[in-house]
Design a protein that fits this description.
Blueprint: H1 3-32, H2 36-54, H3 59-82, E1 104-105, E2 108-109, H4 111-126, H5 145-160, E3 169-173, H6 180-193, E4 198-202, H7 203-215, H8 218-230, E5 233-239, H9 249-262, E6 266-271, H10 275-281, H11 284-291, E7 296-300
Parallel strand pairs: 3-6, 3-7, 4-5, 5-6
Antiparallel strand pairs: 1-2
Helix pairs in contact: 1-4, 2-3, 5-6, 7-8, 9-11
The chain binds zinc ion.
Length: about 300
């Protein structure tokens, strides 16, 4: 699945949730309104709200009405309690209060859709990624725990100072199973907690996106490439695992990193490859960006760091 599909899927799920919680709240309301006293109070509040809308210009009478509404709401709540109905059961429980699960906010796609899409991609890489956080890291499982702690701190600072750091790229190197993906997911989760727009994908998925872009009609190209160009943090997992498509993989990757660097957007990459292997595999312009110490940070988690006892 490519990112646009994942995002559309996330949007579908969010809107389906909206319909579900609204239907549930509606059914509860219909049930509650069968009680005459409840219906009476409910209608009174509705009337008052209507008056409030009419009275917008007169501050004094509005104040009275507002107070009246608050009082009536309290009465209603009490009355519902007597009938063992929770007021909260009559209100839809949205996932996102900002867009009320419509997926749109101020004319644009709400951040909750992007966040959900990113979470889906993160989870598809490595099981449940939601509890992967800097605060939960157990450094005791690392042989060289002081070194790893330091590496995690550098990564954490990179995310915390995302607006001010001069570094645009963060590359995590090391063998299989040393926790590169884990560290990157910590970074992605922290960035999302800070309400950043994060796009997370494996190099394989990104490569598929490049291929889609390459073969898409002109009018659709922008929609495909937009998330990886505009997101505040792009996480690419396992660079080097992707197939090399001629005239696609390397030029597109170079273009993406270049564009992102020009607009100071952050890119985090993990790879099993050594620096020499990266140099050999990709365009020298891409390597010079990724390996240039004035704009890029590199962390090496070496192969023997993780003890066998991990989980
Ligand atoms: Zn939302």
């Amino acid at each position: 699945m490519n990112y646009v599909q994942v995002q559309n899927d996330a949007l579908d799920k969010i809107v389906a949730h909206k319909l579900e919680v609204e239907r549930f709240a509606d059914l509860n309301l219909i049930e509650a309104l069968k009680i005459p006293e409840v219906k009476q109070l409910y209608d009174e509040i509705k009337d008052l709200k209507r008056q409030l809308a009419f009275n917008e210009n007169s501050a004094k009478s509005s104040q009275n009405i507002e107070k009246c509404i608050v009082d009536k709401r309290k009465q209603l709540q009490k009355l519902l309690q007597q009938h063992n109905i929770k007021l909260s059961s009559l209100i839809p429980k949205y996932w996102c209060e900002k867009c009320k699960d419509s997926g749109m906010y101020e004319g644009q796609m709400c951040s909750c859709v992007k966040e959900r899409a990113t979470k889906v991609l993160m989870t598809s890489q490595d099981g449940n990624a939601s509890d992967v956080e800097f605060a939960n890291v157990n450094f005791n499982i690392f042989e060289d725990k002081d070194y790893v702690k330091q590496a995690y701190n550098i990564a954490k600072t990179f995310v915390e100072k995302i607006d001010t750091t001069k570094y645009n790229n963060f590359t995590i190197l090391g063998g299989v199973g040393v926790g590169k993906t884990y560290l990157m997911q910590c970074m992605a989760n922290l960035a999302m907690q800070q309400n950043r727009y994060v796009v997370y994908m494996s190099a394989f998925q990104l490569n598929q996106l490049f291929l889609n872009y390459h073969t898409a009609p002109m009018l659709e190209k922008n929609k495909i490439i937009e998330p990886v160009l505009t997101c505040e943090m792009l996480c690419i997992d396992d660079l080097g695992c992707e197939q090399m498509f001629n005239n696609v993989t390397t030029p597109m990757l170079t273009m993406i990193i270049n564009e992102r660097n020009l607009s100071s957007k952050k890119t985090v990459i993990t790879s099993n490859l050594s620096l020499d292997e990266i140099r050999e595999r990709y365009d020298y312009r891409l390597c010079s960006r990724l390996l240039d110490e004035s704009v890029s940070l590199k962390i090496m988690l070496s192969g023997s760091d993780l003890r066998q006892t991990k989980k």
